[in-house]
Design goal:
Layout: E1 2-9, H1 17-25, E2 35-40, E3 43-49, E4 63-64, E5 70-78, H2 81-90, H3 100-111, E6 121-129, E7 134-139, E8 148-152, E9 155-159, H4 162-166, H5 177-186, E10 200-201, E11 206-211, E12 216-221, H6 237-254, E13 262-265, H7 270-280, E14 287-293, H8 308-318, E15 321-327, H9 329-343, H10 352-362, E16 367-369, H11 374-378, H12 382-385, H13 394-404, H14 411-417, H15 422-425, H16 430-436, H17 448-476, E17 481-483, H18 489-496, H19 507-516, H20 523-526, H21 534-540, H22 546-549, H23 560-563, H24 569-576, H25 589-600, H26 607-624
Parallel strand pairs: 13-14, 13-16, 14-15, 16-17
Antiparallel strand pairs: 1-3, 1-9, 2-3, 4-5, 5-6, 6-7, 7-11, 8-9, 8-10, 11-12
Helix pairs in contact: 2-3, 6-21, 9-10, 9-26, 10-17
């Protein structure tokens, strides 16, 4: 696990080692264990190392093949590298280290881009073919590891984080206004845009090939999700359960490979609890980490957000070495500058609890296991899917699901909100952005099951991907590698073919209600979170208490709806009440203040919008700097 950066001068001018090192130094937090650079004519590669596998100098990067043809800077882990190593040795390959980096490099030398389909792990890398004068940028199937790129004039810049690109003289920061509208609609990015103008995120499951001689580039997709209802189940439920159990244990075991200590996050939920249970059965004195919340100012459903009691019980059962941290309202404001600096572009909810969780774990270990992916793969959010389970056609489905996924600003207020920059965003149609997520997925939608699988595809491509980007940035901010056993290739393949009847309950009842009473409210089913992940819950009862496996889904969220009306109210008013705030150069100040006031007065729960506005203002101050006369100030 590391930080990578580099550049390719498309006019074939020699790459400056000084500039490559400046880009690499911007990622020092990702790799405190070593750094190096490599140049070959117009190419420069940089690397910051977080040593996990093969701690010797043999694992240093950038790494070259013995003949010098290929060079790589790589961030990630290949959990099947030992099997690949044996296969490559049968091809006649010889190895000089025990690292997975060398296995990846040799695999590319033998199989070329086809090697990507053989990798089971998380990765982002830049690989240079000196003979063909061609650069490849690649990212893992699910997008666990990020890779940013930007073409500025005659130079292509790339790196694990946008700040590496900004460290180059050609990489100045400006706000991408269409991306801002995308974010203010979905609280996420569904395209490859980021908040930084001209900075793109290479899509998951893709690689880019750049031919230096031709000054030509292309992006190729080598893998995508494919959720599909089987025509006939290949086994009964008991056999499916045994196969799920086998694959889950195999996935966790694969991801325990390390030359340093491995730990685990432990919330009060089924996913991290099951991962911890399997890991603890194979590792002695496993460390576990839990973040809870001070509930003195919380109310209503927020009182159930603290899961320390459940986590402590599981720690007792699994005999782990447990560490905990309690967050208070003031901690949100306290970490915001560091959070923005490391996260760069915000995604999927308020992320500061994740920052503190990684900070806690990073004090003790370099590797931590997380439960991410279980919900998205096994149907953990039934109240979402049920909102668009019976539809007239694909466009009807898009209309219904798009309305649900508008997270921050409703369509009716988007144009008024962006009045100060109306000309710059007049061509942005967020419904089209939403629809385009599906352009590669099956379009034969004839059954409710087809629409639910469409929703599972959408959430894996957008919600889960956003969560993975957040987890990478905030873990690496503390020199910590975040591993996700649910995103094992074999386990994902199994989940995508699992019959929906083994994921969701009451689907038939929801269908009948929609058919008999078109447009009827099915809220009582939306909230039945126990009706999701049915087979997974059944199998995980082998590892966690029944109260956990049968419990309701609880997101990792702080009670900041109350905090924003309590201890943090001064913070909100100070930042968003300032007429000089940079965010008002882009958003209508009077409308923003109206929406904030409605939350503070208890008329609307807009905690996510408020958090996003606070984040965006800090982003403007850090990356754009200074203040300007606001376009919408009264």
């Amino acid at each position: 696990m590391c930080g990578i950066a580099g550049l390719l001068n498309l006019d074939q001018q020699p790459a400056s080692p000084v500039l490559v090192r400046a880009m690499t130094d911007a990622l020092a937090h990702r790799g405190p264990d070593g750094e190096d650079i490599y140049t070959d004519g117009a190419l420069g590669l940089g690397h910051r190392r977080l040593a996990i596998i093969d701690l010797s100098p043999g694992g240093r990067q950038p790494m070259l093949t013995q003949d010098g043809r290929y060079a790589i800077t790589y961030n990630g882990e290949l959990y099947n590298f030992q099997e690949l190593r044996a296969e490559l040795q049968a091809h006649g390959c010889r190895f000089q280290s025990r690292s997975d980096t060398e296995v990846l490099l040799q695999a590319w030398a033998v199989w070329g881009p086809a090697a990507l389909n053989r990798f089971n792990g998380m990765f982002a890398f830049a690989l240079w073919d000196a003979k063909e004068r061609r650069l490849y940028l690649a990212r893992d199937r699910y997008g666990i590891k990020p890779l940013y790129y930007r073409r500025s004039g005659k130079v292509l810049l790339f790196g694990s984080e946008a700040k590496a690109l900004l460290a180059h003289p050609a990489g100045g920061a400006a706000l991408d206004l269409p991306a801002l509208m995308e974010y203010m609609t979905f609280q996420n990015f569904f395209t490859d845009h980021t908040l930084f103008k001209d900075v793109r995120l290479l899509p998951a499951g893709c690689y880019m090939a750049i031919d230096l001689a031709r000054d030509d580039s292309r992006i190729e997709r080598y893998w995508d999700y494919d959720f599909r209802e089987p025509d006939e189940p290949y086994a009964d439920e008991a056999e499916y359960a045994e196969e799920l159990d086998r694959l889950f244990r195999q996935a966790v075991s694969r991801q325990l490979i390390s030359d340093v200590d491995v730990a685990s996050y432990l919330s009060g939920g089924i996913d991290s609890g099951s991962v911890t249970a399997v890991a603890a059965s194979q590792l002695r004195n496993l460390r576990t980490f839990t973040v809870g919340f001070d509930l003195n100012s919380a109310s209503g459903i927020e009182m159930g957000m603290d899961e320390r009691r459940e986590a402590e019980h599981m720690s007792y059962l699994f005999k782990t070495e447990q560490y905990e941290m309690v967050l208070k309202a003031g901690d949100m404001e306290r970490c915001m500058p560091k959070l923005v600096r490391h996260l760069e572009e915000p995604r999927v909810g308020q992320s500061y609890p994740n920052f503190y969780a990684a900070q806690l774990a990073g004090k003790f270990v370099k590797v931590v296991l997380a439960g991410s992916g279980g919900d998205e793969l096994f149907g953990g959010y039934p109240w979402r899917y049920y909102r668009a389970v019976v539809n007239d056609d694909f466009n009807h489905y898009i209309d219904k699901y798009y309305a649900f996924w508008q997270r921050l600003v409703p369509n009716s207020l988007l144009q008024p909100m962006f009045a100060p920059v109306a000309n710059e965003v007049k061509g942005v149609w967020t419904r089209d952005i939403f629809r385009d997520v599906f352009h590669r997925h099956a379009d034969q939608l004839t059954r409710p099951e087809d629409y639910v699988n469409h929703s599972l595809y959408f959430e894996a491509k957008t919600f889960l991907h956003g969560l993975l980007v957040v987890e990478d940035k905030l873990s690496m901010a503390h020199g910590l590698e975040n591993r996700v056993p649910f995103l094992d290739n074999d386990l994902v393949d199994f989940a995508m073919r699992l019959p929906l009847s083994m994921k969701l309950g009451k689907l038939g009842e929801v269908v009948r209600l929609n058919e008999n009473e078109p447009g009827a409210k099915t809220a009582k089913y939306f909230e039945k979170t126990r009706d999701g992940k049915l087979l997974l819950r059944k199998v995980m009862r082998r590892y966690v208490p029944d109260a956990i496996s049968d419990g309701e889904k609880k997101g990792f969220s702080a009670p900041d709806a109350s905090w924003f009306r309590g201890e943090s109210i001064d913070y909100v008013k100070r930042v968003l009440g300032d007429k000089r705030a940079r965010i008002y150069d882009y958003l209508d100040r009077s409308l923003v203040r109206q929406m904030v006031d409605e939350h503070l007065e208890g008329k609307q729960n807009r905690r996510l919008l408020i958090w996003s506005l606070l984040y965006l203002e800090e982003w403007c101050q850090q990356f754009l700097g200074g203040t300007q006369k606001t376009a919408s100030a009264p």
